[in-house]
Amino acid sequence: MSSPQMITRVPSNSAGLTEEAIARLNHEYRPLGFEERIRRLYQDFEVGNVLVTSSFAATSAYFLHIISSLRPDQPIHFINTGFHFPETLKYRDYLSELFGLTVLDVNPDDHHHQYSLNENLWNTDPDLCCSVNKVEPLEAVKLDFEVWVSSLMGWQTDHRAGLDIFEERRGIIKFNPMIDVTREQRDAYIAEHQLPFHPLVAEGYSSIGCSHCTVKGDGRSGRWQGKPKTECGLHL
User: For residue 53, what pLDDT band results from cuts at 50, 70 and 90?
Assistant: First the structure.
């Protein structure tokens, strides 16, 4: 089986993006709170042009609770790499029922996924593993949307600390409404609304990805342990 190549696709809507438009969006959204930003987004963009993704990881209930409260008809795309913990899939199903979510699985190409299995890519080439099982499948989906909503928070990694609310990311408008939400604000909301954590949080997992590349640890210290990698590539 031949090795898959990392390919970057550019969505067809990229021609309409300008630095001035992104700067204007950041200027207008910066004074707003997280929930206000979500409300405003659906005034500025049609729901059919909005892509929302969730990893259904440690505290995804926070992000999804607000999205589902403000826009219950918004589909949620979940990148199903085939390597998730069983607990993650159960958490996805539980939150889907709890919040009434429509969750659409995004699956990798069968050939590429089988190659990653055969070659143990998560160990031998984790960047390629993430590319074929996460990045490339989502790149194909992004072609159909104008803006992509993520749940990144600046305190999570040095890279995320440098992100703005809106950015141009490989031909799509990337919207990070939670980027300046503090850990304390997130935890206070979770406590106030009694939202459920991912079941592995109680076992010492703070950041939860694929089972091969995740161990117990605080923050992102349990991801890709022993390797310089800190991001899967979706947000780079």
Answer: very high
The whole-angstrom separation of Cα 179 and Cα 166 is 10
pLDDT tens digits, 8-24: 333 334 445 688 889 99
Instruction: Specify the CATH number for the domain of residue 53.
Output: 3.40.50.620
Catalytic residue among 129, 130, 210, 232: 232
> Is-contact 206 219, C-beta < 8 A?
yes
Task: Find the domain containing 45 and state its range.
Answer: 13-213
Task: Show the tokens assigned to 154.
Answer: 């600046």
User: Does residue 190 form part of some domain?
Assistant: yes
Based on the residue annotation, tell me whether 232 is a catalytic residue of this protein: yes
Indicate whether 234 belongs to any domain. Answer: no
Q: Establish if 3 belongs to a structural domain.
A: no
Domain count for the chain, please give it: 1
What's the one-letter identity of residue 85?
Answer: F
CA–CA gap between residue 110 and residue 75 (Å, rounded)? 24
What pLDDT score does 11 carry?
A: 39
Give the C-alpha separation, 23 to 200, whole Å.
39
Give a yes or no: residue 4 inside a domain.
Answer: no
12: left (phi over 0), alpha (psi -120 to 50) or beta: alpha
pTM of the entire structure?
Answer: 0.85
DSSP at 97: H
- For position 216, what pLDDT does the model report? 82
